[in-house]
Write a structure and sequence with these properties.
Oligomer: single chain
Radius of gyration: 22 Å
Low-confidence stretches: none
Strand content: under 5%
Largest sheet: none
Helix content: over 70%
C-alpha cells in the first residue's frame, strides 16, 4: 500500500513545473525540520524533568495541584 502511495506522489511530482518541485522540496524540508525539532524538545523535556521535580514538588505548589 505504501509503495503504491509513494508511486502516486511521484507521478504527481513529475507533472509539476521545476518551480513547484522546488516548493514541494522546501515543504518536505520544513516538515522534516519540524519533526526533528519536536523530538529534540521532547528529549530536553524528559532530561530536565528529574532535575525540576524538586522545584515542582513542594508543599506550596501542592495547593495548585488540587485545582
Amino acid at each position: 500500500m505504501q509503495a503504491q502511495h509513494i508511486e502516486q506522489v511521484v507521478q504527481k511530482l513529475q507533472a509539476l513545473t521545476p518551480n513547484r518541485i522546488n516548493e514541494v522540496e522546501d515543504f518536505i524540508d520544513f516538515l522534516s525540520l519540524r519533526d526533528s525539532n519536536g523530538q529534540l524538545t521532547q528529549a530536553v523535556m524528559a532530561a530536565s524533568e528529574a532535575a525540576l521535580n524538586t522545584v515542582w514538588d513542594n508543599a506550596d505548589d501542592a495547593e495548585y495541584d488540587k485545582l
